[in-house]
User: Which sequence fits this backbone?
């Protein structure tokens, strides 16, 4: 139907908006029924993109959207991309330790293995050593 088409458009736009859009744009797209779990051809979700681009305010907007709509929105915090990477994996790989507490408190699974069998903890340890 028309509603689902509009929702799909908003979902695609949401994913595209994350890198540079303001948090207001993100909220507007969520109001237009963008699917928070929509995945692009690489399996990226809005949350994975928000973590990748370090857009904490977008992460918070996504989480807030779920809190405001507990019966209709189920934000999948362990949704993975094509490489089996969850938002927590991405944060660990990018060395975004500042984003990890927010993800951990949002029920991200620290023991979830990616396609290589690495957990977010493995990535964090590996990247921590690489930095030091």
Assistant:
């Amino acid at each position: 139907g028309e509603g689902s088409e509009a929702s799909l458009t908003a979902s695609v736009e949401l994913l595209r908006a994350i890198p540079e859009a303001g948090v207001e744009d993100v909220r507007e797209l969520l109001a237009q029924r963008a699917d928070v779990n929509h995945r692009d051809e690489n399996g990226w979700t809005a949350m994975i993109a928000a973590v990748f681009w370090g857009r904490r305010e977008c992460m918070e907007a996504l989480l807030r959207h779920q809190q405001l709509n507990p019966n209709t929105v189920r934000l999948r915090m362990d949704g993975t991309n094509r490489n089996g990477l969850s938002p927590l994996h991405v944060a660990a790989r990018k060395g975004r330790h500042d984003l990890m507490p927010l993800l951990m408190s949002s029920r991200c699974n620290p023991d979830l293995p990616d396609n290589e069998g690495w957990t977010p903890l493995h990535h964090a340890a590996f990247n921590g050593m690489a930095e030091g």
